[in-house]
């Protein structure tokens, strides 16, 4: 875990901006027919033909959204792409292009930027998206990354947050809370390391949690899975800020209420054991943890048989009338009103 003091360091000033862009983009290849022109002109040229275009962007700032003391740069590059692809998939679209803009202070050598772009490239290769543009500039302090993802979809296939109807089932993909707990584990190890730098952390019990925090995967597969099952969600959103907060978005925009059941929330065994160790309530973590990048969607109740047995999905509740509000039914069969506290809410507690 010790830093290699002999690694080569090339200052960014030696390359200049165009040199840097050429250097970091030369290994990226273009895959999509819709990418008419990628990097290398004043603007990229994209051809969406008769489909609708989806555009989403995210800005990540060192010290606010990521901490480089435990986030390797390659993972950061990968994750910065994932959070944007996740938003395209949440519209039931296909992501085909990204742009990446970075600002870095002079504490980062070329080798650091190469690491970051290695993660971005891995994401592009794995998820089949083309890097078509971006910008690099200097910052006075720290690192900023902004990724924009561009996708496309048939008009009829796009799923908005606003289409949930009373009696619809509420479904989530994967499991919840692991990424938040991964962050708690990493923060704890950082504090231990500050006190005793020779302490080698034993993270074997937390591998899944840490992977979910450092290398999340966007659910590109869900759209195809639903098509195979002949299910079209009535509403959909990705879980970036926490289940509660995403349910609020769907209910507000669809003008409905909801009931979800504590005993239906999908939790990995590592989430349960780590919650016990950290004395955290696993239901709170699942509701407010955030950064899971799973998809939350609603389907008509007539599709119950199609989704109930699928191992990728958990039916966690159903949509109610707007005046019923948002309710959690506990294991003890009590009704508790849900609060919109997402990831930030939990962090401030
Ligand atoms: Mg989103």
Automatic annotation (TrEMBL):
EC class of the enzyme, as a word: transferase
GO biological process: one example: thiamine biosynthetic process
Keyword Cell membrane: no
Domain named PurM-like N-terminal: residues: 40-152
EC nos: 2.7.4.16
Residues annotated as binding Mg(2+) 4: 42, 56, 87
Listed pathway(s): Cofactor biosynthesis; thiamine diphosphate biosynthesis; thiamine diphosphate from thiamine phosphate: step 1/1
Protein name: Thiamine-monophosphate kinase
Residues engaged in binding Mg(2+) 2: 58, 87
Listed InterPro entries: PurM-like_C_sf, PurM-like_N, PurM-like_N_sf, ThiL-like
Family matches, as SUPFAM superfamilies: PurM C-terminal domain-like (SSF56042), PurM N-terminal domain-like (SSF55326)
Organism whose genome encodes this protein: Polaribacter porphyrae
UniProt binding sites for ATP: 117, 134-135, 161, 240
Sequence positions that bind Mg(2+) 1: 57-58, 135
GO molecular function: ATP binding; magnesium ion binding; thiamine-phosphate kinase activity
CDD domains recorded: ThiL (cd02194)
Homology family: Belongs to the thiamine-monophosphate kinase family.
Keyword ATP-binding recorded: yes
Function: Catalyzes the ATP-dependent phosphorylation of thiamine-monophosphate (TMP) to form thiamine-pyrophosphate (TPP), the active form of vitamin B1.
Pfam families: AIRS
Domain of life: Bacteria
Further facts: Reaction mechanism of ThiL seems to utilize a direct, inline transfer of the gamma-phosphate of ATP to TMP rather than a phosphorylated enzyme intermediate.
Keywords: ATP-binding, Kinase, Magnesium, Metal-binding, Nucleotide-binding, Thiamine biosynthesis, Transferase
Reaction equations catalysed: thiamine phosphate + ATP = thiamine diphosphate + ADP
């Amino acid at each position: 875990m010790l830093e290699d003091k002999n690694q080569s360091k090339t200052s960014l000033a030696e390359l200049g901006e165009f040199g840097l862009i050429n250097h970091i983009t030369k290994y990226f290849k273009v895959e999509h027919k819709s990418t008419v022109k990628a990097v290398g002109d004043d603007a990229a040229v994209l051809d969406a033909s008769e489909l609708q275009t989806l555009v989403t962007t995210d800005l990540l700032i060192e010290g606010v959204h990521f901490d480089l003391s435990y986030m390797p740069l390659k993972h950061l590059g990968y994750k910065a792409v994932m959070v944007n692809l996740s938003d395209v998939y949440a519209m039931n679209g296909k992501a085909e292009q990204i742009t990446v803009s970075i600002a870095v202070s002079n504490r980062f050598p070329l080798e650091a930027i190469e690491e970051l772009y290695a993660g971005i490239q891995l994401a592009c290769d794995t998820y089949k998206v083309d890097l078509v543009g971006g910008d690099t500039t200097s910052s006075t302090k720290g690192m900023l990354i902004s990724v924009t993802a561009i996708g496309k979809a048939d008009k009829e296939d796009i799923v908005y947050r606003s289409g949930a109807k009373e009696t619809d089932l509420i479904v989530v993909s994967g499991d919840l809370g692991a990424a938040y707990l991964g962050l708690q584990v990493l923060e704890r190890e950082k504090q231990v390391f500050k006190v005793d730098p020779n302490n080698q952390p034993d993270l074997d019990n937390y591998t899944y949690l840490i992977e979910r925090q450092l290398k999340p995967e966007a659910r590109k597969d869900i759209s195809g899975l639903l098509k195979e099952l002949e299910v079209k969600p009535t509403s959909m959103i990705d879980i970036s800020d926490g289940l509660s907060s995403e349910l609020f978005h769907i209910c507000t925009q669809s003008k409905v209420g909801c009931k979800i059941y504590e005993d239906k929330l999908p939790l990995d065994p590592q989430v349960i054991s780590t919650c016990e160790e950290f004395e955290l309530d696993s239901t709170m973590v699942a509701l407010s943890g955030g950064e899971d990048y799973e998809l939350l969607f609603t389907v008509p109740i007539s599709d119950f048989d199609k989704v109930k047995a699928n191992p990728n999905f958990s039916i966690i509740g159903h949509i109610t009338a707007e005046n019923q509000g948002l309710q959690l039914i506990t294991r003890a069969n009590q009704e508790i009103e849900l609060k919109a506290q997402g990831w930030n809410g939990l962090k401030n507690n």
